[in-house]
Amino acid sequence: MSTHDATENNVYSETQRRIEEDLKRRAEENQARVDEIRQQRRHLSGGPTPLIIVADGDSWFDYPLPLIGHTDVADSLQSQATLTPAMMKLAHYGEATTTLMGVTKRQRLIDYISEPAHGPIDVLMFSGGGNDLVGDQFRFWLENATDVNNDPTQGVNNELLRDILGVINGAYLELIRIRNRYASHATILLHAYDFAIPTGIGACPFAGPWLRPSLVEQGWPDVKQGRHIVKAILEAFRSRLKELCAANKNVVLVETQGTLSSGDWANELHPTPDGFDKIAARFRSKLRSIPKFKNRI
Length: 297
Fold this sequence. Notes:
The chain is an alpha/beta fold. It has one domain: Rossmann fold, CATH 3.40.50. It is built from nine helices and five strands; from the N terminus they run αβαβααβααβααβα. It has a five-stranded parallel β-sheet. Helix 2 (73-80) crosses helix 9, helix 4 (103-113) packs parallel to helix 6 and helix 6 packs parallel to helix 8. The chain starts with a helix and ends in an 8-residue tail after the last helix. 40% of the residues are buried.
């Protein structure tokens, strides 16, 4: 092993150690709220009690930048709720669905939701798929502009997009299998993000941009054309999630596409604090539309 490889392995190991320590801290802090809710359920006869929620997935549920007031969907939902839920964030920014359902993180989810003291869990919110589609690999889902006469309506390589959406779908099916086995009563909430704008703006010098470089490399430098292509890809993702929800009991799609205006984006992939609030409001509205959760969030 080269010195460079050894250094990378050490950095990765240290990063994972810090993530696990942070998750352990979150679990300990959240357990106090879970215990309060469990106590309420024992003593209240038929009255509404707060929800116990697990939020897993990517940066939409765990926004990494320590900006004052910059929250994420999970934090915003918790602050909007009439009855404050217990909100355990297993989510971690930058993780793809294939990583999230890999051995280590799959086991992390199982270990948490299978522990009786952490539940009964009412809702399992999951945000995933975006990191599988964007970044350096984003160019694979794009046709080269010269090959399609600069027509953005033909800008998506639909064959390769179907392939990656199939991989993402497999990860979601594994999530459903885990829920069915370890928390069968929990409702799964999914979403398909919103129509990101390929501005070339990253979250910080070492994160992003995730869309515009591939679009430019494939001959689509015009932002308007890029927006059309990004929207088509996200609509295909939503369509796949909608089919998944229709085919599986107690799996619900929160309709988030079309929620944000251009001013609601902090960068190419993440909303502003107000934008996250708007997305969280969609989650809250969907939860309140489910009879058993109506007055509990």
